[in-house]
Each structure stands twice: as C-alpha cells, then as structure tokens.
Amino acid sequence: MDYVRLHDDAAESRLVRNRLLFAAVLAAVLAALLVARVVYLQVSQHESYMAQSRENRIRLIPVAPPRGLIYDRNGVLLARNVSVFNLEVDPEQVQDMDGLLHRLSQLVEIGDAEVNNFTRTLGRARTSSLLLRTRLSQEELARFSVNRHRFPGVEIRTRLQRLYPLGDLTAHVLGYVGRISADDLEQIDAAAYRGVDHIGKLGLESWYERDLLGRPGFEQVETNAHGRIIRLLSRTPPAPGRNLRLGLDIELQRVALDALGAERGAVVAIEPASGDVLAMASSPAYNANRFVRGIDSASYQVLSESPDKPLLNRALRGRYSPGSTIKSVVGLALLEADAAQKTHCPGWFSLPGSSRRYRCWKREGHGNVDLHAAIVQSCDVYFYRAANALGIEPIARALRSFGLGRATGIDTDGELSGLVPDPQWKRAAVNESWFPGETLITAIGQGATLVTPLQLAMLTATLANRGAAIRPRLVTALDVNADGEFTAEEERKPLRLGEGGAGAGDEGGPIGGADDLRAVISAMVDVVHGERGTARHIKTERYTIAGKTGTAQVISIAQDEEYDAEKLDKRFHDHALFIAFAPAEAPAIAVAVIVENGGSGSTTAAPIARRVMDHHLRGLTVADAGAAAGNGDSAVTAVQ
C-alpha cells in the first residue's frame, strides 16, 4: 500500500521564513523612506515650510490712502470721498473663476462692464485683491453675507470712493477718476498703488495725480485655514493725499453755465492780476460720477456719439475762428507800424487788379473811419485795407505775442494749441503759396486762424494788464501739513512779462507801448459804452466794460449770395464771440465767451459775459471803480 505525503514541513517553513524576510525588508525600506522624508521636511525644508505656514496664518493687507480733497477759492468742497462696499476677489484662492463669477451673479448684479474690466485686469494683476463690483446696496450686502461661506477668496471691503457733489458743474474742470485698467498697470508704480483701485483719468484728477494719491498703509492680520480674517495684529496707517485749492469760484461757474443754457459753447473767466481761472464752463457737460462707478458701454456710446459732444471740454479743446475779437491786437500791430490811417468803407473791398469783393458785415458800409471807429463799429473794410498795406508777417507776429497759436501752459491736461497762419505754415502744411486775400481774412479773425476759449481769455487778460502776460492757473495752493491746512500759496511764475513797445514781439512779450495800449483799450470801452458800439446794449452804470464782439463764419458764402440764417440749419449758423474785462480802469475779471452757432456776438455772447461780470463784481460800486481808477495803470502793469 502506498502512502501520500500531505505536508512538507520543511518547504512550508522556508516559505514562511522567506515571506517574513520580504516583509521585514519591505518594512525597513518603507521606514527608511519615511524617516528620510521626515528628515527632509523637518530639517532640510524647515525654514521654507515655516515661512509658508506663517504666510498662511499672517497676511499683510494694503490699506488705500484717502485721496486728497479739492476746494474752490471760497472753501466749497468740489471733490470728496465717501465710504462704499466693494466686492473684491483674491485670484490666488479661486480655482474656477468662471464658475465663481456665475454663482456670484446670482446674488449680486454684475454687469458686462464689470466682468470685462475684471477679466482684462486679471491677467496683469499685481495685487492680491481685485475689484469686481463697487457700491453694493444693503440688500446685495445682506445676500452675500448669508452665502459668504460658498465663496472662498471673495470679500466685502469698505473703501473710499470719489464723489463729485456738484456733478456736471465741475466735470470739465476736475475731470474724474476711474478704475485702474490693464494699460494703467503697465505705467504705474505698483507699490504706490497697493490697495488702490482708482486713478485720475482726466483733468485736474489726472494732472495732480501724484499729489492727490497719498501713500498706502498696511494691516497685519491673522487668518484661518479658509483665509478669513480672525484678528488684527498691527496697523500702519496710510498717508492721505494732498488737498488742492482752486482759483475757481464755483458760484461764478454756475452762473456761466446757466447763462449758456442749452447752447453749445464755453465761458472762461480769469483774474488778470494773478492768472487765476475764476470760471471755466463748457456746455453741454456730463456727470463725472458715472465714470467713477464704471459707466456701461451703452451709456458711454450715447455720450461719445452725441452730436452735441458733451465729453468735449470746449474751453481747452474747442478750436474756433476768433472773428473780430482779435481786431484790438491787429490794431496794435497797425499802431506799432504807424499804419493806422483813416479810410473809407463803402461796404466792400477789392484787391488791386481783382474783381472779388471782400464784404463788410454792414452792407451799406461805415463811411470814413479811423482805427478807433473801426474797433468800436467792427469795420471789416478798415482792416482789409490796412492789412493789405501791412502784410501778414507783422499781423501774425502780433497775434503770437499775445499767446495765440500755442498752448497757454495751464496746469491741467488736454489743452490744444491754436493756429496763427502765415506763409511758412502754409508751405509746410499744404505746400502752397500764400495769397494776399488770406492776409485780409486773417486780419478779421477768419480763414485758418484758430483759437481756444482759454487762449482768448488769456489774450483779454493780457490787454487788461496793459501788456503783462500771466500764465493762467487752476490750482492756487496745496496743503503743506498733516492737518490738511493751506498755509502757503503755490508760487506761479508769469508766462512772459514784456515791457511793451516796438520790437517786443514773440520773445519780448506782447507788442504795444503804453500809448498804443491806451488807444486800443479806449476803443474797446466805446464798444460797450459808445453810442455806436456793437455791444452798447450791455452797458451798465455800475462799472466800465472794455470789450470786443466777434462773429465767425461756419460755412462760406458765395460772392453772389446773401447770408440768411433763417434758411440754414442751426448748426450752420455763425459762431458768436465776445471778450471783455472790467472795470476797465483796474480790471478784476477778464472774460471770453464763445457760443457755437449763436449768430451775432453782440446779441448772443455779450449778454452772457455781462451776467458773469455782474456776478463777480456784484459788490462793486461806482465809488469803488473811481477809487481803483485813481491808482492809474500802475495797478495792473505792476503784475509780478
């Protein structure tokens, strides 16, 4: 009988020993790997992970500085800061940004403009917190607070936001702030804008950005594992921006805009002695607060495509033919060249050998006139004849000496220069020769000559100063201490100070000696106060006004046609202009008014200037004017 061996004790023993050995070796290897990893983490990478741990527990949060405030000359607040609730996102804590934005939009209204701006900034972000939506309502704030746990990386933060209390009254002067764009991020110093989400975009807000910005502070906070703030550990307060004080009189600004009414145009008023801009009104205007909050594309399109161009600052960027307002300066050129001779005005003038007639505004003519009468009655034929005899070069030189053809250098952005044409300009611009007829129309402010309302106001202030040119300025002072007090006027140097007289010209200041200036200003006084003056209907007994009317053609009229405003669309009507300063004996205000398509300067622009001067000089009496006159011209020629 055969026996079957059921167990091999030796083989099973070897198998068990081998398995135990393998398990022991495996355990030893795993233990060695674990020890090595522990050594690596606890020893080699100790400092790195401790730093990361501290960063997860303690965070530095930038604190935006309060933006500097802006006041008018009487202390009226024009730009201030208000507390708002903003919705901000930390991109580093968000894995699915599209999903987050979708869920947020179900709780808080987020428009396309906010999403687009956030997305553009996202790729170039240099801060841990990006603005998504500003000015949350109390209802939106409550809805988000209840669901806050669903949105890691999203916070509600209280911020200071710019507010312009007077809305469109100051828009073209102050400009506005807007969200920092992706393009802005490429230009600014990231450290200076930590925690700041708005930047000056236009006007004084842009020009004085460095002064208004301030310096950011920081808060050191402890957070939990979800990034929520547990407690404040320390705080470095921000330094507020500097406050600005303007020469602007906001009530005068209101009067100027009210006087313009529904018309398109601009009013600029300057204090001649200082160059302070008292009013700089452009109509129509817009509410700058809409840009601070983030204007939607549809609303912006309405503003940008409006035929009335409310976004255009006409005072700085509107360029117009000056019309007869420059005849006083052309008169100075004639006096300097001893070319101011009497002439006869039959209502038209023709160049020798030409049949073309250059018409006077008065069809039947003015008869025999000298320079005084030509300025008072605004006789075109007088200036045609005189300009033809004098030539373009002295006329262009005279206009440039009073600041035309170049920017004034005012302390804000966006100013355009005008144009004073001459043969050199024409050759460079269109490669054509200069024609005698162009000299004639340049002498009466037509043709290629272009000015801005600000340049006209500066020209007027220079006449008021009897030839002393002062650089116009908007900001008169910045605060100089921690209390935000204005303790010192910011020094402003004159643009140019010419002693006048023959040969002054471009480099020596405005042309015109004392006698010549006195003669021209006397004619400007009679424009308002003379029996035949073109602006005699705005005459007042309270103070003396020196002025000059102007009308600038918008379309050309053929030789055999008559200008009939009633047959033309309103936008083809002539522009109305008027310049003036008062009191003429010791000027306190110089004004330039342009009304687009307003027709006659005497009937449309002059009454607006009168309202502005009345408001500014409302406390002036006849006795005051007489006392000022007793100081003579020295009161205005001693401008430094």
Overview of the molecule:
By secondary structure, this protein is of the alpha+beta class. 38% of the residues lie in helices and 18% in strands. It is built from 25 helices and 22 strands. Strands 2, 3, 4, 5, 10 and 18 form a six-stranded mixed β-sheet that branches. Strands 12-11-22-21-20 form a five-stranded antiparallel β-sheet. The longest helix has 36 residues, at 9-44. The model is unreliable at 497-507 and 628-640 (pLDDT under 50).
* Structure annotation, total helices: 25
Distance between the termini: 141 Å
| DSSP summary, beta strand count | 22
pLDDT under 50 segments (min length 5)? Answer: 497-507, 628-640
The assigned structural class equals alpha+beta
Q: What is the molecular shape?
A: elongated
**Overall mean pLDDT score?**
85
- Report the β-strand fraction as a percent range: 15-25%
**Sheet with most strands:** 6 strands, mixed
Helix fraction?
25-40%
Q: Roughly how many Å is the radius of gyration?
A: 36 Å
Blueprint of the fold:
Elements: H1 9-44, H2 46-57, E1 58-63, E2 70-71, E3 77-89, H3 97-105, H4 112-122, E4 130-133, H5 138-146, E5 154-163, H6 171-174, E6 176-179, H7 182-187, E7 198-202, H8 203-207, H9 209-213, E8 217-223, E9 229-236, E10 244-246, H10 250-260, E11 265-270, E12 277-283, H11 289-293, H12 297-305, H13 314-317, H14 327-336, E13 343-345, E14 348-349, E15 358-359, E16 367-369, H15 371-377, H16 380-390, H17 392-401, H18 423-430, H19 436-443, H20 453-464, E17 468-469, E18 475-478, E19 496-497, H21 505-508, H22 514-529, E20 546-552, E21 575-582, E22 589-595, H23 601-616, H24 622-629, H25 634-637
Parallel strand pairs: 2-10
Antiparallel strand pairs: 1-8, 2-3, 3-4, 3-5, 6-7, 8-9, 10-18, 11-12, 11-22, 13-16, 14-15, 17-19, 20-21, 21-22
Helix pairs in contact: 10-23, 14-16, 14-17, 14-22, 15-22, 16-19
